[in-house]
Amino acid sequence: MIDAIQAISVILILGITILIAKLIAPYIARVYNRAPSRLDKIVNPVENFIYKICSIDPSHSMGWKQYFLVGLLLNVAQMVIAFLILIFQGNLPLNPLGFHGLSWDLSLNTVISFGTNTNLQHYNGEATLSIFSQMTAIQFLQWTSAATGICMGIAFIRGFIVGSKNMGNFHVDFVRTITRILLPMCLTASVVFIVMGVPQTLNASTTVTTLQGTTQSILVGPVASLDSIMQLGTNGGGFYGANAAYPFMNPSPYSNVFMIALMLLLPTALIFVFGDLLGKKREARPLLWGAYILFGINLAIAFAPTIPLIAPGIETRIGGFMSSFYTVATTAATTGSVNSALSGMHPLTITSGFLGMFIQSIPGGKGIGMMYMVMYIIITVFIVGLMSGRTPEYLGIKITGRDVKLVMVSFLIHPIIILVPTVIAYASGAASAIGVGGNSVGYTQIFYEFTSAAANNGSDFLGASGNTPFFNIATAIVIFIGRFAPLAILLALSGSMIGRKRGGTSGLKTDSPIFTIVLVASIIILVVLTFFPFLALGPISSFFRGLTNGF
Amino acid sequence: MASDSEKASAPTKSNESAPGGLRSAFSRKVLVDSVVRLSPKSLLKNPVMFIVEIMFFIVAAMAIVPQAFVPVASPSLQVFYVEVAAILLITVWFSTLSDALAEQQAKSTAGALRKLETEVSSKRIVTEDWTRKIINLKSTQLRKDDLILIEKDDIVPLDADVLEGIAMVDESLVTGESAPVRKAPGDSLIGGSRVVSDNLTAKVTTNPGETFIDQMIKMVESSKRPKTPNEVAITTVLIGLTAIFTIIILALLGMSVTLGLGADLSVLIALYVCLLPTTIGALLPAIGLSGMSRLYKHKIIAKSGKAIETAGDTDVVLLDKTGTITVGNRRAIEFVPFEGYTEEDVGEAAFLSSWHDDTPEGRSILTLAHEKGFVPNELNSLALSEATPFSASTRTSGVKITNVGMRLPKGDKSGHDRLRIRRKSSTVSDESMASMLEPEINIIKGAPESIKKIVDPVPQNYDLIVEGISAAGETPIATARNGKAIGIIRLKDVLKEGIKEKIQALKMMGIRPVMITGDQPLTAKNIASEVGIEEFVAQAKPEDKFSIAKKEQAESRIVAMIGDGTNDAPALSAADVGLAMNSGTEAAKEAANMVDLESNPAKIIDVVMLGKQLLMTRGAVTAFSIANDIAKYFAIMPVLFSAAIPQLQALNVLQLGLKSAVLSALIFNAIIIPLLIPLAMRGIAFKPTSTMTLFLKNTLIYGVGGVIVPFIGIKLIDLLLVGVFHV
Amino acid sequence: MTENKEKISFKPIIGLALVSLLICGLLFPLVVTGIAQVFFPYQGNGEIVQLNGKPVGSNLIAQNFTMPFFFHARNDSASGVDPDITLKDAYSQITQINNATGISSAALTNIAEQNQEGTFWVFGTPYVNVLRVNLVLIKDYPSVYGNFSG
What is the number of other CB atoms lying within 10 angstroms of the CB of residue A90? Predict the structure, then answer.
């Protein structure tokens, strides 16, 4: 349980984050409407130069298929570049510690993981990657996958806008996301991180003689620039293996709060952008309240047990309470950075983490979480909407059999890509090969691994011990499908809304508090129905066995 | 014909529907049919139930040779497997029973409809060598545009339009209206009705097998019935859920085997079947079919299931004032004299002028005059009078009485006769002298504007009185006698019984009623506001309905309307829900997607309500079915891995025993199907209220209830099993 | 606006992949590095602490203190380099330091208390930075820690 002051601090942190998200949403909406801006003077020449050298026609607009394929192909091209950099790391510059190139399967896993905003890491960065790789493979993909996620979210919204004729131009959206949203935000956040004590240097280490006379290597690097995009882009992949538990990534209690706020900022802002771009601000309400009510329920589950001030796996400066809060936030926003060892968490906190990754939209990854929430809204509108005595409609559009089919398929992908590989991991002996047992503790680790991969979250128990061909390849496949299959389906759904007949206002009011409550209930029921037995085998059974941590 | 016990029930009062209807529906035929439907082949079109049957076969195999299924089965549980298999089979049977019941209900509907078109003999008229010949044919041999002769006591073989003759026709078989209807040239005849007097020559308007009744028969026979858009979408959800639960069960099986959790296959299958949306899967076809049957009990024939669903989505209802809101004819309520005349003067003139007027309005004038004792002395001269029928161009009608005073002389009222005040008590002599001087009485009544043109002088307060009456929403009819305006007959629209409440119900549900009338704006406004309608279109011609419907549709509204005339046809076909009157023309019936056999325009409102009820019933059973799964997890999950993970007993909130947990959940899952059959067939009860209130109410009852009810139900079954059967 | 339904040209894709590599993978981290090195060199290089002009460690990275006259860092911890211990942990080490150095428990308690951090509202558990508090010991008790001061 937490006390009142802790509860108030949680509400304050979330409240202020939501407020800032609401304030920046109109700016984001204008970026994609190509509205004039004060930044134009500086940014327009740069963007026009990029369009020119890349032969991009900014006036061209795309249907959903083209928009998605261009995004997918660009992401693949970026992954190929990063793959080559990781493989040939030993021959590339800025490698002061002389690391060798990575194995092909680890490289593949890493680029797919980072290129899809997942950031599952089967390596310890400080002992594996050169400064050059950290910048041009890791941070590079963190930027591009974040930008891609936002663009897909924006395109998705466009399909629902009354009178829209296409999904926009991916190239232009992508460039503008980087130049007008991510660059200014990340630059600001990086400077804040530096001031808080996060290093930013091209050196890899500083050697000192300790007070006791021994030699100590202090491992540094361009960490602040990574911290900013890692959190703002809901990436979650750390410079160090210990991720945000490492003091250089998260030096103080204050940087910890800053990190929580940063990872929730863009996913929440994109919810407001949904309402802004639609021209129906109220329609953002079920997404926002649905997300944060479920977030609150997750927090309540995580905070239900007694939270130790300090425990093995929890950093002193952060403490048990903020570690639990962070764990809930990082799974809810599918960021995946961790500020403590997951093995230090209570089974209920882990359960809460699972729920965040099952739902993927509380608020979920920026853009993507909003898309999933609309998917849940459509399922809910369909299943319960009939009870209002009308054909279910969302935003005035009647829900057809085809819409329901698309939504069901995108919902169905998630359990398949989590459950099938979990069974295979045990059946093939891959789990026991890395010393993970079949009891509730070991099973939780494997189940978590694939849940995190499927949800493009990236937090995990395995870490570098997951660096085996089976886990590298299996998670890469899960990650790839988990990212692009639902994206394609949801964009197809949105694309099919273009030009559809819009009904009046006498239907179900999706912007009403009643609907939000029903939405929350139906998400809980759907998720519980799908995953309850598997939670029961893992963290729930650990809980009933009386474990408090130690996964 | 549906039996009386299955009598239609309005959606607003569905409790009226007698459970006896269901009981009587149980017959040996239904039972046999339900067993025949158990064959896997016939189950294929219901994927959920098909899977349940496959699961039955697997558990049955486990019951017969448990050894073959080790390690996921144990021979010591053989009896348990028999029990599980039996319940699974019963589950499937409950579903086929529900289908068979709905089908039987539909068949009786179809049967009733077929009776309307039984093959009868007919007399076709052919002209050969300039002579008319009658050829006796079967009705099925007739074709559109054939001329037929229908004599007294003949059955009208097919829908037809009267060309010659006037006859009384008994339509009771078709419409339920017992009084014979008068049919004259231009009227349409319904196939299946019977001529009770005189002969008619008529032209066949449809080919056999192409009437709207045939379309309805096709619809209620489920094998030929296409799925409606909502049924398609719900089926998709059910298939999606089935896929999810299939993955879950396969993964649980895989984990149980690889992690050595020792789950029994029969328990896994029990969990699977419990999770599958069996309730809605079993009842979905019945809900759709019984929706059609309910509509037919309202004597409405729908040409497609989609039309009924669309009716539920209606945003705007265009209501014809006459026939829908008002009883279709005005009633005289007052005689208003002009300066210098009495009420009696006007009443008597009105009496005379209405004598030949056979319209309901004309009769109501006679009634009023008679009630007030204004029977004119010229009554007996009427036999020799000369009537001018109502002419649309002059908008007047009239009567000319010659030989006035031959028997009962009456005073001339055209002059400024001071004696007229005493007239009631006066002797005949004075006036008879005066009236003798008058050669004839010429009374004209009609639209005030028209009368104004033919009288001289126009009374000072003429316009004032006319406007006053119009402003009150009533209709003024001016009366003139021998070129002098004498007064106004005040006619009032009579509202249909219960129309106000129905319109209120529409508005509560967020549906906009729009009244359409040929009346003056003032009259229209008054009627509209009297029944609570804000929007109306006055001075509308039938052709205007089309543009009104189009205008609403352009704003993405779903439009429902009624019509009967040929000039309504374009609007009926443009409207999303078009209800044609059976008494209307063939063109109107063709264009509409529903036909009301009773020709009661106000039923458009019932159609909307029935559409809503159908959608709600489907949604409620779906939500209930899905919400049920939570309790089933809590019943079965703790025992599924009880050997390997005893700690999961902590989830056993219902405190169920190992076997009893599985059996109770399965029995609940099966028994809920027949328990909900009455709900599915009757439709859920609802009070007209706003969309959101309905949504909230039904969500609480069927959604939240769906979560809670199975916890209670499963525990009760468990208590029964443990207490009585010692499971 | 022109719409070309199915055709995808590869030149913009390859071009954009390379441009994004330059901007996001090189330009941005280098610019941030420049800002850090020019304006915040202390933080930018890892908060290296100096004693008598020599770097002796980082404020943010734990050192492996084993000698009994120092406060010791945790040896379980998520990152493995947790530079801090809780105030409670610090108090529990006072007897051992007192035994080794003779510095009074009261003085040691005072030093721990004076250097506690993380006391602002709920943002942390009161804790002390091990290196910082050990450096205080060296400064305050040169006679005891003479060996370590240079």
Answer: 12
Classify residue B198 as exposed, middle or buried by CB count within 10 Å of its CB (0-12, 13-18, 19+): middle
Helix (H, G, I), strand (E, B) or coil at A63: coil
Helix axes A513-535, B691-698, angle to 10 degrees: 30
Query: Is position B493 annotated as part of the catalytic site?
Result: no
Q: Are residues B436 and B375 in the same domain?
A: yes
Nearest by CB to A60, from C2, C13, C44: name it: C2
Of B320, B493, B564, B606, catalytic: B320
In a domain, A549, yes or no: no
Q: Is residue B308 part of a domain?
A: no
ipTM: 0.95
pLDDT in tens, C82-136: 999 999 999 999 999 999 999 999 999 999 999 998 767 766 678 999 999 999 9
| Domain co-membership, B572 together with B452 | no
Domain span at B472: 330-493
- Whether residues B32 and B74 fall in one domain: yes
Tell whether B594 and B636 lie within a shared domain.
no
Neighbouring CB atoms inside 10 A of A499's CB total 10
Q: Among the listed ranges A367-381, B19-33, B454-468, B686-700, which one has the minimum average pLDDT value? A: B19-33
B446 found inside a domain: yes
- pLDDT digit string, tens, across residues B353-402: 888 877 778 888 888 988 888 888 777 777 777 888 777 677 888 888 87
pLDDT tens by residue, B605-636:
889 999 999 999 999 999 999 999 999 999 99
In a domain, B160, yes or no: yes
Touching C: A residues 210-229, CB under 8 Å: 210-212, 214, 216, 218, 220, 222, 224-226, 229
Q: Do chains A and C touch (3 or more CB pairs under 8 A)?
A: yes
The residue among B460, B493, B526 that closes a domain is B493
A551 belongs to a structural domain: no
Last residue within a domain, chosen from B581, B603, B625: B603
Q: Percentage of residues in chain B with pLDDT exceeding 90?
A: 35
* Residues whose CB falls within 8 Å of the CB of residue B113, separated by 6 or more in sequence, listed in order: B213, B216, B217, B220, B296, B301
Q: How far is CA C71 from CA A426, C51, C67, C94, in A?
A: 45, 17, 8, 8
Give the containing element (helix H, strand E) for B478. Answer: strand B475-481
Can you give the pTM of this predicted structure?
0.87
B691/A508 CB distance under 8 A: yes
